[in-house]
């Protein structure tokens, strides 16, 4: 899970408790002029080192990825790199059998997270936001899978899904019979099995975000709606939910990016083959193992990059508009 | 279940709120629904622990789906000693500790510079830092792998002769990948601290470094604690970068190493369950001790929004 694409909302959307950001730009600009040479040098180092690390290990590799996607290379000597035009893209879209299934699976992954996992998280948050007994215990239970890596989630669910020894088939009483479903092994169902496992973790994460969001909604809004005679669902969908707009945007972005980043679970199950093809897994299959085809892997990576940039740009544009 | 969902949403009516004092009848639907969900959520965990506690011999006799037989910690000791979990744990520690320290330190410097001072490109850089963290890591995999493979190092530093198969490769890429997120969060936090704080220090002749170390950083303690907790879990749970960079099984951290357990002890689900349980323990310890920080980290910015 290394990096849940965690994102916060900029602080200007927040209301009370924190110290107010004071006066602002004119003053700050003046201060820059007051900096002496030594201060400027210190600031330069403070900015320089992190920026250099970002440049060398994130930005430049991103550009290189694009460049490599137009080449043919087996990953050995640098002198073997040959220009290959758009051939890799052509190959991937026309002659690479796992590609379109992978695209389809990524779309299913996104739809499942968006239509099932995320709403479950929202529902749990709404229910637990009430003053009910044991709310904290419930929260802890739903939250526990969020602490686990997706790899561990995959392994724990493997114990559930195992054909003859897993809990599910034993509960269904199909274990050790010919009706037993191999949930991870059967390419007709393994995508859904993996999605259930992913939901187990995703819903808790969304719940935490929405619990925070719900606490931030001004109670007087709800009171006003109630006085106007709104029913509870009306109050929620027309007043509370829209009032959580900043969180909603974060959740939408997280859900899309999680769907594009899905990798760990399918890789631990079967390296992303046999019904579990995902674009991210295909990238890696082309980079490691025998017959490295760096160009093809990079072309797939670039497609993933281009798709990812849509939600990323949308999110960053919204987040930083006010800062500018 | 669907009906109880409908029933319970009604209970979120704001009118229930003020009079929510006595917890009574009205929440039955909610409780039934939540209890069912909680059981579903706990089942995989309990099943894993149960499987881990039963020795293979007992399972062979009574089957997996049974509570009969003996219970002991044999699988745990076997996973720890024979399957190499001990080694993986040390590797996780070697990778996680420097990464978290480096990430927080570098991100706090960057955040300080972009949030407390206005200069050309400060917002642009912050946007690019944040964007980097949101990319799928697979996008960067090929170039980083090849860059590391073609970086020659003396054999005294790396026995592969290059950056592959080293802890450094994972530490530096993990750091680079996480700096963006931490910078974003910390810069929002620092921006909200009043200007007067550093103004006063400036009048007293404190340089930029003094302002950062003795004024801003101590005030960011809650955010730093939350981020450190969160990043520890993130790095501990990272699967992908070690998978890509480290081929030598002896250097894998636990989250990636557990994959080998699966291959090595293919049919021994009890051992795999024990391995999974052991892997969860550090995160659970963090969860129990630092839950507040962790949740604060997850919702940092968002909760204050």
Strand content of chain B: under 5%
Mean pLDDT of chain A: 84
Instruction: Characterize the quaternary organization of these chains.
Output: heterodimer
Q: Which CATH class of the domain at 102-275 in chain A applies here?
A: Mainly Alpha
Shape of chain B: globular
Question: Taking Cα atoms only, what radius of gyration of chain A do you get, to the nearest Å?
Answer: 24 Å
Order of helices and strands of chain A: HHEEHHHHHHHHHHHH
Per CATH, which architecture of the domain at 102-275 in chain A? Answer: Orthogonal Bundle
Distance N to C terminus of chain A:
32 Å
CATH top level label of the largest domain in chain B = Mainly Alpha
Strand order of the largest sheet of chain A: 1-2
How many domains make up the coordinates of chain B? 2
Largest two-chain interface: A-B, 139 and 135 residues
Strand content of chain A: under 5%
CATH architecture of the largest domain in chain B: Orthogonal Bundle
* Structure annotation, total helices of chain A: 14
Q: How would you classify the helix and strand content of chain A by structural class?
A: mainly alpha
Q: Please, could you describe this protein's structure?
A:
The complex is a heterodimer of chains A (324) and B (305). Chain A has 324 residues and is mainly α. Chain A has a domain at 102-275: MetI-like fold (Orthogonal Bundle), CATH 1.10.3720.10. Chain A has 14 helices and two strands; from the N terminus they run ααββαααααααααααα. A two-stranded antiparallel sheet of chain A has the order 1-2. Mean pLDDT of chain A is 84; it is low at 1-30. Chain B folds into two domains: 2-53, no CATH class; 78-298, MetI-like fold (Orthogonal Bundle). By secondary structure, chain B is mostly helical. In chain B, α1 (2-10) packs across α2 (28-53). Chain B has helices at residues 2-10, 28-53, 56-62, 74-81, 85-116, 122-134, 141-149, 167-191, 195-203, 208-219, 221-236, 240-245, 254-264, 269-298. Chains A and B meet through α1, α2, α4, α5 and α6 of A and α1, α2, α5, α6 and α7 of B.
